[in-house]
Design goal:
Layout: E1 11-15, H1 22-35, E2 40-44, H2 51-60, H3 68-80, H4 83-91, E3 95-99, H5 102-111, H6 116-120, E4 131-136, H7 139-144, H8 156-169, E5 174-178, H9 183-202
Parallel strand pairs: 1-3, 1-4, 2-3, 4-5
The structure holds 3'-deoxy-3'-aminothymidine monophosphate (NYM).
3'-deoxy-3'-aminothymidine monophosphate binds at residues 18, 45-46, 60, 75, 99-100, 104-105, 108, 153.
């Protein structure tokens, strides 16, 4: 029996608008899984620790100006530079809980007016998530939550556009979770969805690539 195809980890992705609760829910989920003894790591994109990530970070902080397509490709490159590591983690049985992925890449850039298919193209061949958890919060509600920071994109009108593009990207495999429920209520729902997904992956669900 080829054990390498068995018992792989799951790629679980959080998506949603800024201030939708992704970061706190992904942290809570990761500690829950760790307590249960599930091998898991918390990842996020952009990964600001790499050189490409530092360019992205400077752009988001308005410390540098970049052409819209250039920054789009940097966000994509930032995922590509982690792809090999991502695949080996998954195949060695470690699940990854990732705060934002390709859908953020496409939704934010197309909200600026770039063609959606053009935005998807550089994402083709990245690993497809096993589960996309979309925290659904109306842009107006998200804006009320402790205010946005000062980074680029953190403005209500722009977030409304991003919300429209997210709804175009949605497919039936996404789990749309009401992000206006209580923190504990959301957590409870996520735990159920994720446990099921991890089971399916352990049973040998193949690793596939974007864009399905
Ligand atoms: N963002 C994030 C993009 O525009 N494209 C991408 O590919 C990714 C991963 O970066 N407003 C945007 C969405 C956020 C910003 O993300 C920084 P975070 O999760 O706030 O660090």
């Amino acid at each position: 029996v080829d054990r390498s195809s068995l018992s792989r980890g799951a790629l679980i992705v959080f998506e949603g608008l800024d201030r939708s609760g992704k970061t706190s829910q992904s942290a809570r989920l990761v500690s829950f899984l760790k307590e249960k003894g599930v091998p898991v790591e918390a990842w996020r994109f952009p990964d600001r620790s790499t050189r490409v990530g530092q360019m992205i970070s400077a752009y988001l902080a308005n410390e540098s100006q970049l052409d819209d397509r250039t920054i789009h490709l940097l966000f994509s490159a930032n995922r590509w530079e982690k792809r090999v590591q991502m695949e080996s983690k998954l195949r060695s049985g470690t699940s990854l809980v990732v705060d934002r992925y390709s859908y953020s890449g496409v939704a934010f850039s197309s909200a600026k007016g770039l063609d959606i298919d053009w935005c998807k193209a550089p994402e083709v061949g990245l690993i497809a998530p096993d589960l996309v958890l979309f925290l659904d919060v109306p842009p107006e509600r998200a804006a009320e939550r402790g205010g946005y920071g000062t980074e680029r994109y953190e403005q209500l009108e722009f977030q409304k556009k991003v919300a429209q593009y997210y709804s175009m990207l949605r497919d039936p495999t996404w789990e749309i979770v009401d992000g206006c429920l209580t923190v504990e209520g959301i957590e409870e729902k996520l735990r159920g969805l994720v446990s099921e997904c991890i089971d399916t992956c352990q049973k040998g669900k193949p690793v596939t690539n974007l864009w399905p």
